């Protein structure tokens, strides 16, 4: 099990709108931009092999900045295509709060980060004592039908609570602000409640103002 003391103070970050990584979940990525190919090459040379996934935050009239909170994953899968692109898998380790940008000559961004607020991410899988699986799956079925999505319902019925809720948070086609709200949820129960609200709003054809902040 990873300890706080094992985590690096500075990590490479990959800003990607709409991409969500959560602890103990896996995120496949297709890497083709030269600066991020360089990032992967450099990551493979480190002992920790950690990359931080974080969403850009648009600032009216200014440059895009980073959200304050992201999630780092360990590079656990890697393959290269014939034309030099990389197919990788990140396994989520812990969320982090950005403390500062690190200046340097790398073509990608690096940040000094604080892991302490999310020490719980390094523990065992979370449970959700208030989880009503049958009701949740009924709502999910309506949401999937409305959005033309399909899934393996047998696996969903058998999946552990954390795997089910986190995987759906990552995979459902919510907008970037919704994804950030799911990332920042302080507990699995809160993330499940947020997920339910987002699906209910989508089914009602809700407006942006109805979404959880």
UniProtKB/TrEMBL annotation:
Task: Enumerate the Gene3D superfamilies for this protein.
Answer: LON domain-like (2.30.130.40)
Question: What InterPro entries does this protein map onto?
Answer: Lon_prtase_N, Lon_prtase_N_sf, PUA-like_sf
Q: Which SMART domains match?
A: LON
Name recorded for this polypeptide: LON peptidase substrate-binding domain-containing protein
Matching PROSITE patterns: LON_N
Question: Which stretches make up the Lon N-terminal domain?
Answer: 11-203
What domain of life is recorded for the organism?
Bacteria
Output the Pfam families linked to this UniProt entry: LON_substr_bdg
UniProt source species:
Gemmobacter denitrificans
């Amino acid at each position: 099990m990873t300890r706080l003391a094992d985590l690096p103070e500075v990590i490479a970050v990959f800003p990607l709108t709409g991409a969500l990584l959560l602890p103990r979940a896996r995120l496949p990525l297709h890497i083709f931009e030269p600066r991020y190919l360089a990032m992967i090459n450099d990551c493979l040379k480190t002992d920790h092999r950690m990359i931080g996934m974080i969403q850009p935050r648009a600032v009216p009239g200014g440059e895009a900045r980073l959200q304050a909170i992201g999630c780092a994953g360990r590079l656990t899968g890697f393959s290269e295509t014939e034309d030099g692109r990389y197919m990788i898998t990140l396994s989520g380790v812990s969320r982090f709060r950005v403390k500062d940008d690190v200046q340097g000559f790398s073509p990608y961004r690096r940040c000094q980060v604080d892991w302490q607020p999310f020490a719980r991410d390094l523990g065992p899988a979370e449970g959700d004592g208030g989880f009503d699986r049958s009701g949740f799956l009924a709502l999910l079925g309506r949401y999937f039908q409305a959005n033309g999505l399909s899934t393996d319902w047998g696996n969903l019925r058998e999946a552990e609570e954390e795997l089910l809720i986190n995987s759906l948070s990552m995979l459902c086609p919510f907008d970037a602000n919704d994804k950030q709200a799911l990332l920042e949820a302080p507990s699995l129960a809160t993330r499940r409640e947020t997920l339910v609200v987002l699906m209910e709003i989508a089914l009602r054809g809700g407006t942006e103002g109805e979404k959880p902040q």
